[in-house]
Amino acid sequence: MDQSHIRNFSIIAHIDHGKSTLADRMLLRAGAISQREFHDQLLDDMDLERERGITIKASAVTIEYELDGETYMLNMIDTPGHVDFHYEVSRSLAACEGALLVVDCAQGVEAQTVANAHLAQKSKLALVPVVNKIDLPAARPEDTAMEIESLIHTPAEDSIFTSAKSGEGTDEMLQAIVRRLPPPKGNPDAPTRALIFDSNFDDYRGVIVYVRVFDGKLAVGDKIRMMGVGRDYLITDIGKFCPKPRQFKTLGTGEVGYVVANIRSIADVHVGDTITRTHEQAENPLPGYQPPQQMVFSDFYPGPSTQFPELREALEKLQLNDSSLTFVPISSDALGFGFRCGFLGMLHMEIVQERLEREHDVEVVQTAPTVPYQVLKTDGEVHEVDSAGELPEPTYIEEIREPIVRVDLIVPTDGIGAVMKLAEDRRAEYKKTEYLSSDRVILTYEFPLAEIIYDFYDKLKSATRGYGTMDYEMIGYHANDLVKLDILVNNNKVDALSVIVHRTKADARGRGLIQRLRKEISRHQFEIPLQAAIGSRVIARETIKAVRKNVTAKCYGGDVTRKRKLLEKQKAGKKRMKMVGNVEIPQKAFMAVLDPGE
Fold first, then answer.
1. What is the count of structural domains for the chain?
2. So what's the pLDDT on residue 598?
3. Distance in angstroms between the alpha carbons of the first and the last residue of the chain
4. How far apart are CA 272 and CA 287, in angstroms?
5. 446: confidence class by pLDDT, cuts 50, 70, 90
6. Which of 125, 205, 292, 439 is the most exposed place for a label (fewest CB within 10 A)?
7. DSSP 3-state assignment of 169?
8. φ and ψ at residue 354, rounded to 5 degrees
9. β-bridge partners, 502
10. From the CB of residue 425, how many other CB atoms can be counted at a distance below 10 Å?
11. Would you say residue 394 lies in a domain?
């Protein structure tokens, strides 16, 4: 198709502002699906996405739309809204020239709206503001349009008012895409350059690569080269999602689609790599993507019914579909061989664990998540550690640096006091306040990442009666008075339970942790001491009493020395058992580390 008739765009918004429903409504209006096929979350084809009602993976769809007697090809990428999948959004925007910025007019501009709008502007994308859910009783379309104007400096009258539920405003939105978004640039006669923005694994066809062609074209039968790894393949199939897969012979300049080329080796495909034709190669690859920055680390070990190689194979296949997941092999005395996995956030970690169990049928034992730290050693070297178990001996540590994030909190004005108190309790540093409107403000703070990853969002929602939202970005590492809190079970250190904490909170955290572990670890045949220690100083102790058998029950009456002899024999047996016995630590005990116990 002629390049001037192609439009590549993303749909970006805060979570739950109606992106996926809007995408479904556009497919119906453009005739890509029939009324019978139309249903909620049509593009969210993962069971997890349907159950949670969120988009996890960006999905690309091609639709044809007629306007003024001309046919236009609209390549649409529906993106996730949750802060943990920010990386998915940045990848999608790199394959587009424009974006629809969707805002729920009952909620107004929220934290992820701000983050995604800035990301799109940084990528120099044309933005079309869309005010959604105008059919709600609490809708404030004009106020929301004014908030968007102050955010992206586009006149409020340029906003398009729609209701994805009823379909109102869909025509105006499709016309705005054609008239206000630019066609793709690129040279059809130059050597082929196509950007890989996603990939998937199929047991029968190998790796399926999703691409956006920037220069030249790709055709079935072409020999292609992956410029990053230097491997050659032959294209056997090309197609587009309309929204069902449809085969095509070629993909021209500016078009988006999928390529199958019998790629069996997962290691040969990297998101952000450039595809070119082998016989006429491009000189320079496309810029690609910044590597994602892992915010949370957790150890995954094979469960009772899973072997180590099965877990590794499942992680490799999942990484192909989710390039922001990283993993390296590790071993633990308590749990055997496993992997330290890096995630973009807590929700991302939950999703990966569920996908491993559902899609790949593997069982995993997961340790409590931690954040990355930097350690400056006495010899001047700086090391990055992902868990407390990796810290060197205290004598070799000059300082420990913790990750700091800039957090934008959008809250109602009557919730400012409660939110400031919450931020103060989490060691946050106040930066600035901006007013979005007369009753909503943006509070900007710098937080230690460890203080917000677990339950801060829940506490924020409680403090603002559900109206507060947050977005965060990493800004660097700052040195602080941090110590390693060791947990000893039966006098043995368990690295998977150790945590890095601020010295002022270490005593309270240690006592709380030991008390929770006592409830989670079941009683054994011998007494189990639980201790929390900083270096060689024990700061808290609890004891799990042994399961006792009444060995003197058969001794009715008679000499007391006989009873004493039996009790001494039992005592000696328990002592011997304590020396050789293993303590079983359940999965719930590893997750008890997370609970701040407030």
1. 5
2. 42
3. 61
4. 8
5. very high
6. 439
7. coil
8. -65, -40
9. 482
10. 11
11. yes
CB 101 within 8 A of CB 117: yes
Separation between Cα atoms, residue 339 and residue 17, nearest integer Å: 36
Helix, strand, coil % over all residues of the chain, rounded to 5: 30, 35, 35
Helix (H, G, I), strand (E, B) or coil at 181: coil
Q: Are residues 155 and 31 in the same domain?
A: yes
- Contact, 113 vs 159, CB < 8 A? no
Residue 489 within any structural domain of the chain: no
pLDDT tens per residue, range 73-104: 888 876 655 555 555 566 667 778 888 888 98
Instruction: Note whether 30 and 135 are same-domain residues.
Output: yes
Same domain, 78 and 165: yes
Q: How far apart are CA 543 and CA 551, in angstroms?
A: 22
| Sign for the pseudo-dihedral over CA of 84, 165, 256, 319 | positive
pLDDT confidence tier of residue 520, bands split at 50, 70 and 90: confident
Residue 498 CA to residue 506 CA, distance in Å, equals 12
Region class of 294: left (phi > 0), else alpha (psi between -120 and 50), else beta: beta
CA distance 171 to 163: 11
Q: How many CB atoms lie within 10 A of CB 189?
A: 8
Closest CA to 466 of 429, 423, 424, 418: 418
The more confidently predicted of residues 575 and 339 is: 339
Q: Is the peptide bond before 243 cis (omega within 30 degrees of 0)?
A: yes
Tokens (6 digits) for 450: 């460890």
Looking up tokens 């150790």 gives 498
What is the DSSP secondary structure assignment for residue 582, as one 8-state letter?
P
Nearest to 483 by CA among 406, 541, 424, 536: 536
Give me the sheet containing 364-366, strands edge to edge: 326-332, 336-343, 296-302, 364-366
331 by Cβ neighbours in 10 Å (0-12 / 13-18 / 19+) ranks as exposed
What letter would DSSP give residue 80? Answer: -
Asked if 381 and 311 sit in the same domain, the reply is no
Strand (E) positions, 481-575? 482-489, 492-493, 499-502, 528-534, 537-544
Asked if 119 and 14 count as a contact pair (C-beta separation under 8 A), the reply is no
Bridge-based pairing state of the strands 429-437 and 440-448: antiparallel
Residue 564 phi/psi, 5-degree rounding, is: -60, -40
Calpha distance 176→130 (Å, rounded):
10
Tallying the residues shown for the chain, one arrives at 598
pTM over 0.85: no
Tokens standing for residue 173? 């939105």
We report the CATH number of the domain holding residue 171 as 3.40.50.300
- Measuring CA to CA, how many Å separate 439 from each of 400, 423, 585? 41, 20, 50
Residue pair 326/294 in contact by the 8 Å Cβ criterion: yes
- The strand pairing partners of 383, in sequence order, are 375
Say if residues 489 and 593 touch (Cβ distance below 8 Å).
no
404 half-sphere exposure, CB direction, 13 A CA radius: 16
pLDDT in tens, 309-357: 899 988 988 887 677 788 888 887 667 788 988 888 777 888 888 888 8
Q: Taking the CA of residue 229 as centre, how many other CA atoms within 13 Å lie in the half-sphere pointing to its CB?
A: 15
Asked if 352 and 431 sit in the same domain, the reply is no
Instruction: Locate 565 and state its tokens.
Output: 């002899």
The two tokens of residue 358 are: 């559902």
Backbone φ and ψ for 465, nearest 5 degrees, come out as 55, 35
What token pair was written down for 54? 């969120």
